[in-house]
Write a structure and sequence with these properties.
68 residues; mainly alpha; 51% helix
Length: 68
């Protein structure tokens, strides 16, 4: 059953690749840009936000097997 999912995913990827190859270079580049799902405008770069309440020292202790 897992092979069926893998087969389906592989064929979907190949179909997408084939569709992109049919486009001219300008349209292909535009199709591969990240787009907003609501309006279709370019999404631009994602901004990474830091969580000021995240305790990195506690995280490191727990990661190394230490207690909270």
């Amino acid at each position: 059953m897992d092979r069926d999912y893998l087969w389906c995913l592989l064929n979907m990827m190949l179909d997408e690749e084939e569709a992109l190859e049919a486009l001219c270079p300008a349209c292909r580049a535009e199709a591969q840009e990240g787009r907003c799902p609501a309006c279709g405008n370019p999404a631009g770069e994602r901004e990474r936000e830091d969580n000021p309440s995240f305790d990195w020292e506690r995280y490191q202790r727990m990661k190394e097997g230490g207690g909270a």
